[in-house]
Amino acid sequence: MDKIMTTKERILLFLEKKNIKKESFYRETGIAASNFKGVGLKSDLGVDKLAKILKVYPELNDNLVWLITGEGKFEVENVQQKKDHQSGDLYSSDINDKIGDLLANLFAQYNTQDKSLMFLQSQINKIENKYSKAISEQNKILNEILLATKLSAK
Questions:
Q1: Taking the complete model, does pTM exceed 0.85, yes or no?
Q2: Are 13 and 5 in contact (CB under 8 A)?
């Protein structure tokens, strides 16, 4: 049974097939080497890092499904053809638009969740303040009752 490769392992295979030194890859993408060693190799890559890699190596766009899912085959010919295309070609723009839309969608979801959490926190603070005031008022009334009880007992 074949070993299932992670996205990071597929990236390393791409580097090997294209004779790109890992050190160059780390420097050009700004991604730490520790992400591709040991336990880090088995962890998720993350959309932000994938976007950096695709920006530096746009020729991977033709192999994007393989890179992300492992489905299909890595085709070196596609990589070379893509490298020969200009950066403004239709396919490149389409992929970049899709990646941009994906990142925008993820940011919008994060932003919505963040705003929801801030709203909930403000509601919790309001409730805590009301309860705090109510408890203080209740303690004040109880103290007055205790004082009145002591005075009437004398």
A1: no
A2: yes
Query: What are the helix and strand counts (H, E) for the chain?
Result: 6, 0
Smallest CA-to-CA distance from 60 within 21, 23, 18, 24 is with 18
How far apart CA 104 and CA 24 sit, in angstroms, is 29
Distances from the Cα of 12 to the Cα of 7, 20, 22, 79, angstroms: 9, 9, 8, 15
The sign of the CA dihedral 109, 61, 29, 88 is negative
Per-residue model confidence (pLDDT) at position 93: 62
Q: Which of 97, 34, 85, 93 is nearest to 59 (CA)?
A: 85
